[in-house]
Amino acid sequence: MNKLRCDAISIFPEYFAPLQLSLIGKAIENGLVDIKVHDLRDQATGVHKSVDDTPYGGGAGMVMSPEPWGSAIDQVLGEVDSPTHDLIILTPAGEKFSQKIAEELSQSHHMIFACGRYEGIDQRITDYYRLIPGVRVRELSIGDYVLNGGEVATLTILEAVIRLIPGVLGNPDSLVEESHSMDEDIVEYPNYTKPANWRGLEVPEVLLSGNHALIKRWRLEQAQERTRILGERTGE
Ligand code: ADE
What we know:
Layout: E1 4-10, H1 22-29, E2 33-39, E3 52-53, E4 63-64, H2 66-79, E5 85-96, H3 99-105, E6 110-115, H4 124-130, E7 135-141, H5 151-162, H6 173-183, E8 197-198, E9 201-202, H7 212-234
Parallel strand pairs: 1-2, 1-6, 5-6, 5-7
Antiparallel strand pairs: 3-4, 8-9
Bound molecules: adenine.
Adenine binds next to strand 5.
């Protein structure tokens, strides 16, 4: 089976502790995915172990220097034997991450996540690795808001990608349902479980009817209504 290898490079390696939990933790335990976290600071030279500097051209904030990033990425590329490498650079200026990109990345053999902080990483890191054969560089954003760094974005992308790898989810049927609704741009119908009456709120009667055709129709109508309301709110 295709074992996915992931490397995350960050000045806060502790951020990645949650990867030991839940389904991703199990996927690691079961050998479906291998995740290594690297401290960018290990590549910093100089007495202050600095990894950033002031921007050329002026402006607020600091920019991450290309030298430690180049050393860290080169080291990972040298360590991992793979015909292709996906180098993912997290930035609010990147392409918007989506289920479609998650599906593409779930076919990857090796992903490297470069988690910038401050005003981001010197642009030459993207430009340089775009020229290296076998390296596919993608600048990705997880949404139209600014985070303090790429670590949370990396956790988000890793979770979305790893759950698509065969053997990671207990019940792969849910992937089939999700991918249908994603393809059709429709959100999920509402779900209910026991008890049938909770604080005076009843579960819709149709769901207790046992009539599968009716249930299927009701769920589709609910999903369409939710999609319509969401569209009104977001203007889409
Ligand atoms: N770094 C800062 N904000 C980000 C975002 N929205 N997505 C990805 N990386 C980021």
